[in-house]
Batch of 4 targets.
Target 1
Amino acid sequence: MIWDDVRGRADQVEMFRRTIRRGRLASAYLFLGPEGTGKNLFAQRLAQCLFCTTIADEQLDACGTCSGCRQIQAGSHPDFLRIACPEGKREIPIELFVGSREARGREGLCHDLSIRPMASHRRIAVIDGADLMNEESANALLKTLEEPPSYALMILIAANPDSLLSTIRSRCQAVRFPALDLADVADLLIAQGMVSDPSEAAAVASLSDGSLATAAQLLDPQLRQLRDRLYAGLAAERFASVPLAKQVLAGIEEIGGDASTQRRHAQWTLRFGMEFYRQVLRRLSEPGQPADASMIPQAQQLASRLDAGSAADAELIMELFDRMAAAGDLIERMTPVPLCLEGLFDDLGRIQRQRRPVRG
Ligand SMILES: [Zn+2]
């Protein structure tokens, strides 16, 4: 089955299969869900099933070898149209819908959709990042959505439905793509060769929010280096606020990017820190349990220096966790990153000194 490697989407596959069997395929769908949850892959597989010349549409499968399948896989099917927000741009320009000023109405997705199919009985158009259409682009597409050619199937893909005009939304059937199961994210990381070690895959997946795109960001080598510096600092027998703050800030600086990118990396750092303390706490509450694959070794080290049965130690870790979470709120509220992190590490040191020293 062509859907075998598409994780967690059996319901959506079944919905389309039933709809096609009943002859009720709509002319426009809106795939909604966070980035990295397989919406594009699903749209491509759906198109392949509908363009496969050897398997009937209502079976919603594809042979993988006919000319239709091969053309979709090669990205060269004449009836498959796809546009997306150009690299580095914040909006999908109007030209992609209706052509350049000189060729207005004679080029672009809306024009191409008006041409009869060449190699099949449909034309399928995918608009990736439909939430990045500006008003002009949206209005151009709206005309096609209002009077679609009988052979047209339009798939709009959006992570942020609030950015879509309500007139666009109301003309599409919504299909939801919720976050993936963390186990599926871990499997996909391995299946796609992004990670080879299953415990590393589980650890990355646990922070991914069920998004393969987020997991891929987490695999950035510099971000991992930053994470490891943080873990080492948090687990150190003598917690050293000032050097740790310096190291983490330098790490964020080294990864680079604009202010909002640095803010995102600071946010990641805090989430790593929360995960670290969460694991210490879990270790303290279940001392007899064997460490699972996604356990952070440095968290285990810190937990082993604490008393598993001690309420005071559990409270200490909870207090550290809460302080880490509060820093995340500050970053969210646009507090400058250095101010936020220096204050955080200072407080983490103070809390540990006040409660009682973490024994070596
Ligand atoms: Zn085929």
Target 2
Amino acid sequence: MSNKILIVGAGIGGLSATIALGLANKSVSIIEQSSQLGEVGAGVQLGPNVTKILKRWGVDQALEAYAFEPNCLEVYGAKSGKLLANLPLGQSFRTRYGSPYLTVHRADLHALLLSSVKKHGYADIHLNQRVHDVQNGPDAVQVKVQSQGQGQGVDPVPSPIIEDYEALIGADGVWSRVRDVLFTSNPAQFGSNAVSFSGDLAYRSLVLQKLLPPHLRTFAVKVWLGPDMHLVQYPIRRGEWLNSVLILSPSQHLRARDAVPKDVLSALDWTINMSQDQKALNIQSILHQTCPIVQDTLRAIETWNVWPLMKSEPLSSSSQMAKGRVGLLGDAAHPMLPYLAQGAGMAIEDAFELGEQFNGKTNSARPYCVQNILAGYAAKRWARSAEVQKRALLNADIFHANHALAWARDRSLQLFGPKLLDMPWLYGYQS
Ligand SMILES: Cc1cc2nc3c(=O)[nH]c(=O)nc-3n(C[C@H](O)[C@H](O)[C@H](O)COP(=O)(O)OP(=O)(O)OC[C@H]3O[C@@H](n4cnc5c(N)ncnc54)[C@H](O)[C@@H]3O)c2cc1C
């Protein structure tokens, strides 16, 4: 049996796991289905719980050179335009949590993680390979891998490559094949964790701040809460670019019925153009319900990429994150709505804990046993990941509230804003 650990997926989670395992002196291979390494999408917010880990991995200086450190988080009413609450970030967060709150382009974060993997030779990376079957045996994990692009057209489908590994980490995202093969066969155990479309669509855009009129530029994280919608904006790339994410509940995008694709999954990477595309009706339809600054923002941004948001029931036991020689990590383990901005953060925390368990810091008294290490990893991670999944689901209702609930939310934010927005249980996490 090979003494290598296989990581399936080279996203932010898979590369983070590679760094953590590399630092624990484990030998790692990565299999990635795409032909190129990289990230789609736009910005991500990284709380101090995450930047602290990136510092431990030695990528903090490079990160800070690309990222932006917003001075505060501001929450506004999308209808009234009124400032409801303000939480200082910047130096205040550094002092409070010992690490900064940063916003970064996900491609930059991915590139930094990848360059660390390459610089230290933490893994051999195999592109264009898709894992399609996994056997979780007592002595080894066996995977069947199909080369992508083969077997198309008139060519016969080639036999899959079969390899043995000491352990396998499924970091293969929200549609995880590893989870489907090994963790969903017993519906009583994992059935409730099935992934489904939440009904919400995220419209993402990136624009150069200098191309926007001065009153639409921002150096804070700004959140606009409205009925069945919210808009989040923050700068990335040293503040030069403005990242915007507009999220609409079904009632909003169903106003423009024809604008929603029949098969919502085909909305992946669906680009709309505000001035030319009929589909922009989705966004146009909410203009009349928002304040002038939100209207100006939506009109000023020409191109949006639409992303359907997936959700699953929160984890309910550690056996949903590890079984025998196989562990799940990141979105593969705990798909979550982006209403707490922590999906990538949880993948990075998972990876850190995985490294800690392999390092033997927390179980040094025991003899080396990969099944125990993975069980220890899952035991440490499942409840926290479940809590973050739950809060993200709850935020979906609060952010998009209507009528009395919206009034109560706004009043609470006005009275207790900083207390509600600061989350020591989340940002002050210690492994
Ligand atoms: C609108 C939006 C905003 C967000 N904002 C934030 C934020 O502010 N902060 C934050 O922390 N998170 C945020 N997130 C969440 C974050 O983007 C994800 O949680 C994170 O990127 C998941 O990383 P991952 O590595 O687990 O999965 P992925 O990034 O999905 O990576 C999985 C990889 O596995 C590969 N793969 C899949 N199947 C196979 C297979 N069978 N064989 C081989 N390879 C395979 C894929 O090609 C891919 O490269 C946001 C998400 C959305 C949608």
Target 3
Amino acid sequence: MATETLFDELKRYVKFGPEDEATLRSLHPVMAPHFERFADVFYQRILEHDGARAALRDGPHMVDRLKVTLVAWLHQLLQGPWDDAYYERRCRIGRVHVRVALPQHYMFGAMNVLREQMIGFVEQHLKEKEPVQAIASIDKILDLELAIMVHSYREDLLSQQARVERLSTFGQLVGSIGHELRNPLGVIETSLYILKQRVSGDERTDKHIERIGQQLGIANAIITKLLDMIRDRPLSRETIAVGPMLEQACAAVTTPPEVQVQVRVPDGVPALLGDPIQLRQVFVNLIENAVIAASPKGEVQVVARADDATLQISVQDTGPGVDPSVRGRLFEPLVTTRPKGIGLGLALVKRIVERHGGSIGYQPRDGGGASFTVTLPLKAP
Ligand code: HEM
């Protein structure tokens, strides 16, 4: 026997059957001319509400496009067929909301706005013709829709848990490999030191010994970086001059000749209290990402400004910007937009910034590209 799909199970639960299907289909021709009005009311309600409006990340102008998708959604709602393909489509829409990080609690209010519109219509127009069945069928299908939306959020939570578990296994692995590599590297370093005393004088040999020493330094630095990512180093706070810190971070990033990196720190931006090495790491990571995004040709701007309580540093690039589908997840470990990235850079950035009592956010840059803003308290928390 074929196993029942979640959709079938849900339909069975709310007793959604052929009678409801027929009712919804018969409502379609009378209600369809009003769908645009329903969509207007729906988005008007979102725009009136600060929190919900904030979810429209590309600004209110995306509403026109969304109204079209909502009208199509309403046509399908009343026309069906309410089969597996319908369920799949609805799950996909649910995942779109999850991906744009739309808080799930808005779904209940939003569905209710549609309910009000549809039931209001039925009560007004079908007074003489038994609106009871129509209202019951609308209630059932909207409950099913809501259940699918909430299900998408649950699925997302489960996959997040799986990711965290994956990360912890990955972290343990990185930690033990890192530690194991320290020993042989230490032996190489000591032997190199002894060799240096014996063979100096020959120019080529000296050059190669020098190179081995440099590469050892790089290998050790990589291990330190990896270990930093998996354990929180205690913060060692010092007073940091913002300009030089940002200049040093820029200098540490390899930049192609046609990418211009500019740092702007206005006079009067106060010094910061924080861990200089870890904060420098934050800006190295952000500037490195921005330079890669702006390559092969483009601009990166690092701009600092301060108010009474906070310092804000934004790193902007003229690259393609971050796809809306990953924006909500950008700071999670193992999320990357680069084919070769492992997705730890921004997660580390976020962790360091938050340990300083600050926050980091992403906004699309005006005129295209990405803009990351780090906000740090001027007084230690
Ligand atoms: C419960 C009722 C809702 C329904 C039926 C609904 C329906 C839809 C549909 C059909 C799409 C298009 C998906 C696609 O194929 O790409 C969509 C996308 C979207 N919805 Fe909703 N939505 C609902 C609630 C909300 C609310 C409350 C908000 C905001 C507060 C919202 C914000 C968005 C955004 C931002 C996208 C577009 C993402 C993108 O393309 O970048 N939705 N929605």
Target 4
Amino acid sequence: MTRTLGTEALAAARRYESEIVRFLREIIAIPAESGREQARCERVKAEYEKLGLGGVRFDGIGSVVATVGDGPFVIMMDGHIDCVGVGDPKSWSYDPFKGKFEGGRVYGRGAVDELPAIACMAYGARLLAERGVPPGVRVVLVASVLEEDCDGYPLMHLIRDEGVRPDVVVLGEPTDLDVYRGHRGRMGIEVVTRGVSAHGAHCERGVNAVYKMAPIIADIEALNATLPVDDFLGKGTITVSYVDCKTPSFNAVPDECRIVLDRRLTAGETPEQALAQIRALPHADAAEARVLSWDGTTWTGVSAHQEQVFPTWVIPEAHPLVQGVADAAALVMGRQPSISRWVFSTNGVATMGRLGIPTVGFAPGREELAHTTNEWVAVEDLVKATAVYSLIPHELAKKLTADSSQPHQTPWRSRGAEVRRRTCDVTRWTFVVSC
Ligand SMILES: [Zn+2]
């Protein structure tokens, strides 16, 4: 294929530039922390409908879903709709909910993480529909809720509970227009020590639970220095992220101390091993360690629950999904994108990490700006990303044709699953899903 298609796609996307920018600014201006996304979801649904996308609906937990094309090969394109809070508003030099537009950039909470994907995927789907969806292909667009609270949960719901069966997944987490193919996993772990309370004036009569925790905290700091490094994904890490204690009063010896640990798992580390490491710390004899659970409520009123285990995942660079998305990017940008990985976690922990569905990421915006008080995205990158999203189905369809000696779905998916098994054994936490 020549670059002509890429040039045409870019020109077509540019015709929608002002509408993409307007839509992005409007959704930035609607606050939507996890579980409180209703107004923004309704706005996105209205835009999908205006663009003429098919099957526009809310799923059972409130994510917005639409489809283009009706083939058996399903490409899911996901952008999460929720954002983290803004912290102290005074720490922002502009209103985070205004969708400030200046100097060719759009600013605000979500301007990187990851509302550009919502806007660009919607307009990319529109361009795709105008150009014609390749035979045999269907794109399922998802603007997913709750990602910031429990990454993976919304796609787990859509796939496991609602029967949407993607063959491949494209994530809209920021990649600065490169192609990302994995990231470290993560876990939330809590450690509790117990003591005996006593009056502060007779503290020698008590057993201070905080003092029992202190050497464990030092053990954890020492453990972090010993965790393995993977050349591609980076280092496994652990850090204390929260400390709390229970005490009858400020004049008493605390009888319980609790810490929470943020654990990042690199290639080759399993959740089971990570938990066992904590239980084996030199001073952990008297402590209890367990995986944290997450409980939330969706804006539609559904109770949500999941253990805080988010598996590591990597897909090989040679996988046709990685290559197809890279080809689409190269057609538009006239250069090969870098193939890299995220430092943070994404909904890929469900699609690739738990389910073995080949997953990759492509989006505008720089990951290191996510969750900061200076989130911005370049308008030029919005236009490019929109063009790339519109071409991804064509490039994947070409790869499928090249693979036509075999039924296409099995090899693509099993290649993903093979990798998942190698990089992370999550047997204790794996959901049973028959795709
Ligand atoms: Zn994100």
